[in-house]
Amino acid sequence: MTSIKWIVALCLFARFGVLAGSAQESPYFITYDHHMEEPGNLEIEVSSTTDVPRSGQRFYFAPWTEFEYGVTARWTAELYLEGQSTWDDSTIFTGWRLENRFRPLKREHWVNPVLYLEYENINEADRIQKELEGGAPDVSSPNSVLRSIKDRELETKLILSSDVHDWNLAGNFIVAKNFSQSEGVEFGYSFGVSRPLATMASGSNCRFCRENFSAGMEIYGGLGSTHGFGLHDTAHYVAPVFAWLVSDNATLRFSPGVGLTHESSPVLFRFGYSYEIQGFGSKLSHLFGGKP
Amino acid sequence: MSRLRIAELTVVLTFLSTVVGQNPSYQLDPDWRPSEEAARKTNPLAHKSQAVAGGKKLFLRNCAECHNQDGSGILKKHSADLQLAVVQAQSDGALFWKITNGNPDRGMPSFSKLPELERWQLVLFLRTLQPPSGGP
């Protein structure tokens, strides 16, 4: 690359690279609260789910990438790309999902509702377990069998969330319909509570200050379907959650979940790293000659 | 145009685009008003000047992208010039309410995800924003 190209590249980086910021994210992996992505911001997150298998089951690693974009202050859209790798089996792409969250009310209230609509095009080998609805996922069959079973699903959630004295309390109620299989309409839930470890910012740019950490707890699981509503044959987890704001634009999250029923994995580990780019939409539009 | 000229122009435009764009013509949204009770709230950190530094950090992290690093606003984003008298004349409670609730229809997000005291730190920092001498 010539030196002039280097200068131009450096300037482009300076213009776009410094846009990163404001990554104060909730520590939840499963539960959604009412805080939306800031308009025009893009958050890229790489996460994974792994478990401690029961005897006869194989260890798996299920990573996913999430692109979360603030379309407006009351509408956030997300695209997921998902995969899975099973020990002594194979590594496969398991599908994608597109989700939208809408906040109907303009102002903050005691309870803030958010409407969630998602379309997923995945297969039965998908194991990220981003939400649990209906029965427990099949973790025993080989990928070659599971990947051929399609899951085209429409999912809705009612998200209710409240901020009370720096605590966030959130509950999600899930209804999903799989168009590929006759499973009826499936149900699920998740609840979360979290709090930052410090409620005032220090003046210094510290990485390990308490203000950069938040912690909480999630509980989530399936509630069967219209063919059999209830806890029978469903997986449920209780999971502490931790988040660390590593820098202004990056957050690390971790959650060890403990299975509560025989259908659950004994332990689920989740890791996530998210990076936020501020003003992504307007800068991209500007780059292609659009009006700001 | 020579390659050197293009490089020079890129450098100049890059830095100008981050500096230019104040919004002194900002006008308040008449529909975006707190209740009297919310406007009357006082800042619990009002006498803790040491909390301003934390407020500045939060401002740069959460607000500067739209309001500029000096709070002067950005014209093309229609964001408020926080140095203006019309903004500074508002009570602490009103500014706190605006940070908490946002004005989603005008693009201002809610920052209720920040702990309450951090939002008051932001209000404390906003009070330090002044137009440059000779400015509006």
Beta-strand level of the residues of chain A, as a percent range? over 45%
Number of E-state strands of chain B:
0
Q: Strand order within the widest sheet of chain A?
A: 1-2-3-4-5-6-7-8-9-11-12-13
DSSP helix count of chain A? 3
Count of alpha/pi helices of chain B: 7
- Net shape of chain B: globular
Structural class of chain A: mainly beta
Distance between the termini of chain A: 31 Å
Mass-distribution shape of chain A: globular
Helix-strand string of chain A: HEEEEEHEEEEEEEEH
- Uncertain segments of chain B: 12-20
First-residue to last-residue Cα separation of chain B:
39 Å
Helix fraction bin of chain A: under 10%
Mean pLDDT over all positions of chain A: 88
Share of β-strand residues of chain B: under 5%
Q: What does the largest sheet of chain B look like? A: none
* Quaternary status: heterodimer
How would you state the average pLDDT of chain B, rounded? 83
Classification by helices and strands of chain B:
mainly alpha
How many E-type strands of chain A?
13
Polypeptide structure, described:
The complex is a heterodimer of chains A (292) and B (136). Chain A is mainly beta and 292 residues long. Helices cover 9% and strands 50% of the residues of chain A. Chain A contains 3 helices and 13 strands, in the order H-E-E-E-E-E-H-E-E-E-E-E-E-E-E-H. Chain A has helices spanning 3-17, 143-146, 280-287, and strands at residues 42-52, 60-72, 75-86, 91-102, 112-123, 150-164, 167-178, 185-196, 213-225, 228-229, 236-247, 250-259, 267-277. Chain A has a 12-stranded antiparallel beta barrel with strand order 1-2-3-4-5-6-7-8-9-11-12-13. Chain A starts with a helix and ends in a 5-residue tail after the last helix. Mean pLDDT of chain A is 88; it is low at 9-21. Chain B is an all-alpha fold. Chain B has 7 helices and no strands. Chain B starts with a helix and ends in a 10-residue tail after the last helix. The interface between A and B is large, with 45 and 44 residues.
